[in-house]
Amino acid sequence: MSRRLGNRRRKKILGMNDTTFYTICSFLILIILTFGIYIWLMQRESSIEKAKILEEKERINSQIEEIYQSTIDQMESLLDYKSATIVRVSAVGDILCGKNMQQYGQDFDSIFTDVTKYFKDSNLNLATYETDVKDVKKEFANSIKKSGIDFVSLAHNHAMDNGEEGLKETEEYLKSIGIQTVGVYDETPEKRVKIVEKRGVKIAIIGYTYDDGRGGVNIYNEEIVKEDLKYAEENAQISIVMMHWGDVNTNKTNKLQEEQRNLLIDNGADIIIGAHPSAIQKMEMVENKYGDKCFVAYSVGDYTSEFANENANLELILNFQIYVDKNGNASIYKVDYTPVYMLDRGSQYKENRYKILDMKKEIALYDTEESNIDKSTYDKLVRGVDRLNSIIQKHEEN
CA separation (Å) from 110 to 30, 118, 143, 297? Predict the structure, then answer.
């Protein structure tokens, strides 16, 4: 009797009957179970995601490491021959500095901190300087030099944006900070072709662009090309032509590029390095009419830019070795590339908004305490490496 009385008092105090009480208990148990299942699913999803990231890292690392190791092995085997000379050359594409990069990138040096190491072992580092010092702070050019670039082509479609005065001022300033230039027009091949000597090897470098009707720089012209390459052949052991050509923002080459390629290599060009499309295009070894092999990189993308799309932000540092035998005959021996990515952190960064990422490094560090990128950036880098491998045709010399 006293127990039943106690139960009735408790129910009265709680203000509920048996049905309500059991309903609430069942509801609470359901919430606990649901929450438990949710936590389990989240942990399972996290484990799956970590496993996927690990698998991606291993796959990407294998793709990139294969390139590096192959080059190292071949380099070491060549160095066994004491009579051989190896000249290492690195090349990047267009150097651009838009308004956002100027406004939010006052510390320009910080853009390049991840990639300067890749230029240190090269004897010559090439690019196309598509920026006028009248439009951009000279500190930007200083940072380009610090990053490792020591030779640029000024033959491009923006060369005359500030007229002859702007082009001359840009050329003179670059030279004053130790960056050699090519591509400004002159009447004679002796002035249009630059001969540089690296490790005792004479290398001819020539720059051409398409005709935008303003002149000032070397415009691709068949007669001039033949004249320049003849001079190069007579005065150097190997020739590099820097071409500003192709369609913008596409990974596909066009018919004109192929026609110009044929004329260049049949008249003595050994290496062609392309820019202007702001996107990576294929590389290939092509035989000239004499049966000699010539290397063509149709577009190596940009070096710096602020284009807001993944295709333009995907870049590479092209590396190749010039091999010279004991008789002084030079040829391109081995080609590899370092994949890099121009990251735009967004307008919330008032300083150091832009940075060129070492893709191999950032992919390897992702999901660790040392990582500096988020999942969205990581996914872009993974897609970028896959895209590079689908675009670039690797050719090994026999």
Answer: 54, 15, 9, 28
